[in-house]
């Protein structure tokens, strides 16, 4: 189900994103917090980068025979993901590292 950004009124069709691709506002918030409004520049082309949200990555191989239950036995690391709108470069940061 799509959702509408309360900050910039952009329609977000992808429900897996918790952050607006247009303004960076988190889902359900009306305005950007001061820490979110700081612009992160791309190291490659110096264009502004947008926060795509926090993604979880798991270590090791998938336990195919156990299916989703096998995910309980692997270590997971959450990382904040930023992407450049111009060149497509993606950067990962520890959660909350850029919030201060």
Keywords, please?
two-stranded antiparallel ribbon, 0% helix, four-stranded antiparallel sheet, mainly beta, 100 residues, single chain
Q: Which range does the strand content fall in?
A: 25-35%
Could you tell me how far the N terminus lies from the C terminus, measured between alpha carbons in angstroms? 33 Å
| SS field, number of helical segments | 0
Query: Which strand order spans the largest sheet, edge to edge or round the barrel?
Result: 3-4-5-6
Low-confidence stretches: none
Oligomer: single chain
Overall tally of structural domains: 2
User: What is the radius of gyration?
Assistant: 16 Å
Based on helices, strands and strand pairing, what is the structural class? mainly beta
Mean pLDDT: 77
What global shape is seen? Answer: globular
Q: Name the helix and strand elements from N-terminus to C-terminus, one letter apiece.
A: EEEEEE
Largest sheet: 4 strands, antiparallel
Count of DSSP strands: 6
Helix content range of the residues, please?
Answer: under 10%
Structural commentary:
The protein is mainly β and 100 residues long. The protein has two domains: 1-37, no CATH class; 39-100, no CATH class. The chain contains no helices and six strands. The strands form two sheets. Strands 3-4-5-6 form a four-stranded antiparallel sheet, with no helix packed on it. A two-stranded antiparallel sheet has the order 1-2. It comes from Shewanella halifaxensis (strain HAW-EB4). This is RanBP2-type domain-containing protein.
């Amino acid at each position: 189900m799509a959702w509408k950004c309360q900050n910039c009124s952009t329609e977000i069709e992808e429900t897996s994103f918790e952050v607006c691709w247009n303004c960076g506002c988190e889902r359900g918030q009306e305005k950007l917090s001061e820490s979110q409004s700081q612009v992160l520049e791309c190291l490659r082309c110096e264009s502004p980068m947008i926060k795509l949200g926090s993604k979880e990555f798991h270590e090791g191989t998938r336990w195919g025979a156990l299916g989703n239950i096998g995910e309980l036995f692997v270590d997971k690391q959450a990382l904040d993901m930023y992407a450049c709108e111009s060149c497509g470069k993606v950067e990962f940061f520890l959660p909350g590292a850029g919030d201060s």
